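Feature request disguised as a bug report, sorry. It would help if multi-protein outputs had a clear separator. Right now it looks like this:
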Amino acid sequence: MRFATPLVSGRLIRRYMRFLCDVELDDGRVVKAHCPNPGSMMGLKDEGLRVWLEGNDDPRKKLDWGWRIVEADGACVGIDTGAANGIVAEGLAAGLTGLDGYDTIRPEVKYRDKSRVDFLLSGADRRDCYLEVKSVTLLRQSGLAEFPDSVTARGAKHLGDLAAMVAEGHRAVLLFLIQRGDCDRVAVAADIDPTYAAAFDAARAAGVEVLCFDCDVSPSGIALRRRIAFG
C-alpha cells in the first residue's frame, strides 16, 4: 500500500482526545492532524517522537493532515488501523498470506449479530473462510508484538463470532497484522485485557486459526512482509 501523496516529517507535540495530535513539522510549522488510531498507542505517543503526516486536500475533511507513521524503538510503525485491511487485501491478491485457492474475496460482509467480517473468501468445493484482521503496534519486550493495547470488548465479540462460524462448518481465521518490522513473534496482552485473552483461548479451542504477519513500513508505503510466530 503506497501513500497517495508524499509524507511530511515532524516531531510529535501531543496526542489528545484519541483522534487528534499536534505536530511540529520540520519546517517549523505547528499543525493539527487526525490520529486514525482509537487504541492507547502505548509507546507511540510520547512527545518528541519522529512522525510522518500525509497531506489532505479533500474539502469534506476537517483537518489538512493525517498521521500515518511514527518512529519508535528504532523502527517505523504504521499507526493507521484503517489501513490494515488494505494492506491485507494487497497481500491476499498477491498470494502472500497462504489463503490461496478461493475464487472470490469480498470485504466487509455482514454476518452474525451486528457484525461485519473483514473478508469473506469463497470458492467452489471449499468451505467459506471468514477472515478477521487486527492491526498490532504494541511492543513492550524486544521482538514481541502484543494485542490489544487497550480493552476491546468489540474484539472479544469478533472472536465469538468467528468461533460460531467454525461451529457452523465454515473456516475462520484471525490475522494479526503487525505494522512494524522489528518483531519475530506475537502474543495476546492478557494483563491489559483478560476478557479478550479468555475469548481468544476459547476461539482457538473452537477451531479458529491464527496467522501473524509483519510489515515493511517506510514513508513511501506499508506492505505485508513475512509470516511470524504466535506465542
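(second protein starts here, but nothing in the output says so)
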Amino acid sequence: MAYKTILVNAEAARRAPYIVACAARVALAEQAHLVGLASTGINPLMYQCNAVAPGVVLRQEELDSLTASARQALAAFTATASGLGVLSSEERLTNDALPDSLIRQSRYSDLVVLGQTDPGEAAPLPGETLPQQVILHCPRPVLVVPHAGDIERIGERPLLAWDGGMAASRALLAALPLLRRATLSTLAIFNPVQVYDAHGQLAGADMATCLARHGVKLDVVARDTDGDVGEALLTLAANLGADLLVMGCYGHTRLREMLLGGATRSVLRSMTLPVLMTA
C-alpha cells in the first residue's frame, strides 16, 4: 500500500499555505500526485437564494469574485507545491460546497489533507466542523493539520491509539505508508480491561505483531485513566515527543458520539500535532 494520489484543501484560509506544505511533504516522501482543491460555493449559494426568493439571479460581479478567490487559492497551492519540489500536481476547481467537493474527490484519492477548524473561522454546518464532516463521509484516511504551531516533521515518532475496535484497526492500517518510514511508533492502549475481550490475553500484542509484519518498529504502552481518553492521548503524545497521532473516529455509534462527544471530539478540538483519522 502507498499513497499515490493525495488530495489537499487549498481553500483561501489563514493556514492554507501551511496545510498545503504539509501535504506536499507527504507527497514528496511518497512520490505521489498532489491535487489541490478549491470551491467557489456558487451552486449552494444559488440554491439558497432561490429557496428564499424564487427566480432571484446573483449578480455577475458576485460570481466573478467567488471564482477569482478560488482561482487565487489554487494559484497559491501550485506555487507552494512547486516551490517545495512536488513534481506532479494539479488544480481542481469546483462550484459545490467545500465539504461535498472534498468528500466526492476523496473517492479518487488515497489520502485527504485538511486543517483543523480555526476558532476564528465559520464551521460548514452549525455544531459540525469541516474535519468531522469529511472524516465521517469520505472513504479515505484524513490527515488533519493543527491550526496553530509549526510542524517540521510528520510521522517520525507516531503515536497509535488502539482500543481493539474496527475504526482503530482501519486507521492503523491506513497509516502504514507513514508508519513504515517512522523511526519508532508507540502503540497506546488506555483502560485495556474495561472493554471485555477487546485485546486478547496481552493488550496490544496482536496488533503489534500485525504492524511488525509490515516492517513497523514500535513499542507498546498501556495506561489507565479516569479522565477523557482524547485528552490523555494528547498528553501522552506531548510526553513522547510524537509528531503524528493515528486513531479511529467514532468508535461508538455515530449518534451517541455526536450527542455525547468523546475522544474524537476532544482530539479535534485540542490537537497540537497532525492527526490521521478514519471512520
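Even a blank line would do. Unrelated, but nice: The CA atoms of residues 100 and 167 lie 22 Å apart.
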